[in-house]
Amino acid sequence: MESDLSETISATTKPRPSKPTGLKGEALKVKEAPLTWLPNPEKDITVYQIFRGTGSEDGFSRIARVEGKTKYEDKELKDGHTYKYKIRAEDKDELLSDFSEAISVETKPKPKKPEGLAGDIVQGKVELTWQRGSESDISYYSVYEKRFYGLDRINTVKANSFAEAGLAKGKSKTYVVTAVDNDGLESEPSQEITITGR
């Protein structure tokens, strides 16, 4: 014999954490992207998972798990690249939130390579000039001699000009110049110029 049914009760399973909000990134930093976000309202969040993307919606991959804080610095990035980020929260029961809104962060680019490199023999000296870079934080210019094994830096100068002792008649040197900013980022080399002693 079976009894009548008991009173009906209802039970609610634990909800997933809410998706994180306030994700921000600091742009134009050197080879890194500092990220911050607001803490989740749930008290039992144990980890925030950090995802970095390549541009497509399916191109995100997890790069870090952050415990006990709401910030992360993604380091060793390429100069002048844009990276996408999104995060999600994980609670002590390993329940996962939805992803936050995605953001984009650009790292600081290298200076533009110097343009207009020109030179000649003037009063027995090699004199080079070039256009000053448009960036406001150019620290100095590096002058290189191009050799068969690569570039050999021969001097650094604050001004957009350089002079050194002249060349023996018929002897040649090939020069290039780069710009270096206050953070030590160096541009690609300028176009080459070859000076021949006469």
Topology:
Blueprint: E1 24-25, E2 33-36, E3 45-53, E4 61-66, E5 71-74, E6 82-91, E7 103-106, E8 118-122, E9 125-129, E10 138-147, E11 150-157, E12 161-165, E13 172-181, E14 193-196
Antiparallel strand pairs: 1-2, 2-5, 3-4, 3-6, 6-7, 8-9, 9-12, 10-11, 10-13, 13-14
Folded structure, characterized:
The chain is mainly beta and about 200 residues long. It folds into two domains: about 25-105, Immunoglobulin-like; about 120-195, Immunoglobulin-like (Sandwich). About 0% of the residues lie in helices and about 45% in strands. It is built from no helices and 14 strands. The chain has a four-stranded antiparallel beta sheet with strand order 4-3-6-7, with no helix packed on it. Strands 11-10-13-14 form a four-stranded antiparallel beta sheet, with no helix packed on it. A hairpin with a 7-residue loop joins strand 3 (about 45-55) and strand 4. The mean pLDDT is about 95.
